[in-house]
Amino acid sequence: xxxxxxxxxxxxxxxxxxxxxxxxxxxxxxxIVNEDSAWRYQEGVNRRSLSIYINSLIKHYARLLxxxxxxxYSKESRQLVTLDDFHDHMTKLRNLISNKKTCFxxxxxxxxxxxxxxxNGGLHCHLLLIYDGASQDNDWYLAEExxxxxxxxxxxxxxAHNCNNAKSKKKHELKGTLGVGMIHRNDPQQVANANKTAxxxxxxxxKGQHLKVMLPSMRTFGHGEYRNTKRxxxxxxxx
Length: 239
Known about the structure:
By secondary structure, the chain is α+β, with helices and mostly antiparallel strands. It has one domain (14-223). Helix content is 42%, strand content 18%. Strands 1, 2, 3, 4, 5 and 6 form a 6-stranded antiparallel β-sheet that branches.
């Protein structure tokens, strides 16, 4: 990267250059602080909205199957994927989720959050899928099927981590923190763990992992609607 008309190797950092550089940093400091504050505020709003959504679902169903999948790109391809590509891939995935076919059948809730790796800059999505526990019970299989969908959408550029794998679940089970798999409404510990797992998607302390650049009108977080015309057992939505 050039410094003025010179390259870094040609620059002699005397007192004046250091002072100008410090002044430039100060100029942008307020903008950076304001941007960080706005992001933290929005994460708080998202967190409250997600908490209400998750608890409404848990209260409505006797048991729910929680599935977490982290959608990423392989190390070899992550530098080739543009923000436009990522946005296109996520749009296709959300369309599949909305259709509720194949591995999204019996889906009763979902949430997603887009992030960018702090160290490697890799674009990724934390995806939470919530199924009717009376109709689906194989969480590992469903997560694997979602991984296949992601690989197909990204035409082989993608990579995904199945958070419902046996090793990970056993580890959390031993610690009493398992929040994926079958969650029973009448088990307070399971409900608390499921909430914690869900709210990881909106964690203000994950500073530096938000998208550094966004497309116009691009959303970085979303979840389904609890009150809809297809959810059985609810009073009709007034027009």
